[in-house]
Write a structure and sequence with these properties.
By secondary structure, the protein is an alpha+beta fold. The chain has helices spanning 12-23, 39-47, 66-76, 88-117, 125-145, 159-174, 182-193, 195-204; strands at residues 3-7, 28-32, 55-58, 61-64. It binds glutathione. It comes from Arenimonas oryziterrae DSM 21050 = YC6267.
Length: 219
């Protein structure tokens, strides 16, 4: 039974899952959510009333949340690249860093973008400043961590890097990492050079005009 993925190519959480699919060359039927009145959007609402994406369908099973989808693929479509290590202690580190990237890179980055999407009278500069402060704290922590690492944990390329790649990609567009953080900048470049993520970035190029803060002319 073919896997179906409800996703949008420009969505960071969807790219997180696309990286995992591409790393292990897992075949799937793409159900793109792009465009108005897209029947795939109605199908998504039936499958998952929260309507957040990505959502994976495998026969009778519906799996939501990017991390859980990658977990599911590791169990049901295992491939040569193990994104969650078998060793429980190493897996703990990978999951912890995955939470870090979701909560302390993606969440503040999205807060800044959502604020920009609101009508001017509903924008909240204090909320944006809080999100920027959080990103600076996260960047500084990562700058130290990445001084001695190729990937987010010592387990090799993992679930944590699947999260880091799109979140740092868009976070840098939103709130620049800057030249004072060479280790983090180099890590973001390594992620961009990883073929699975490079492919996701290329597939999302046609949608760059969707970025509400204006996509920079790079990457
Ligand atoms: N916690 C979810 C977050 C998914 C998420 O926020 N997806 C965004 C796209 S990047 C989305 O569904 N946006 C549409 C909406 O919020 O209605 C996950 O890890 O998969």
């Amino acid at each position: 039974m073919a896997l179906q993925l409800y996703f949008h190519p420009f969505s960071s959480y969807c790219q997180k899952v696309l990286i995992a699919l591409y790393e292990n060359a897992i075949a799937f039927e793409p159900r793109s959510l792009d465009g108005r009145d897209n029947p795939a959007m109605r199908e998504l609402a039936e499958l998952w009333p929260i309507k957040k994406f990505p959502v994976l369908v495998d026969g009778e099973r519906t799996i939501f949340e990017a991390t859980s989808i990658i977990d599911y693929l590791g169990v049901h479509r295992p491939g040569p690249v193990r994104l969650i290590p078998e060793n429980a202690d190493a897996a703990l580190d990978v999951r912890m860093l995955d939470r870090f990237f979701d909560n302390y890179i993606s969440t503040p980055q999205q807060r800044i973008v959502f604020n920009a999407l609101r009508p001017p009278e509903h924008r909240n500069p204090a909320d944006v400043q809080q999100a920027r402060d959080m990103l600076d704290t996260s960047y500084d922590w990562l700058e130290k961590r990445m001084a001695t690492r190729e990937w987010a944990t010592d387990a090799g390329f993992s679930l944590a890097d699947c999260a880091a790649a799109p979140f740092l990609f868009y976070a840098d567009w939103t709130h620049a990492i800057g030249p004072s953080r060479p280790n983090l900048t180099a890590y973001r470049q390594r992620l961009l050079a990883r073929p699975s993520f490079a492919r996701a970035v290329d597939e999302a190029r046609p949608y760059r005009s969707y970025f509400p803060l204006g996509a920079p002319d790079r990457d």
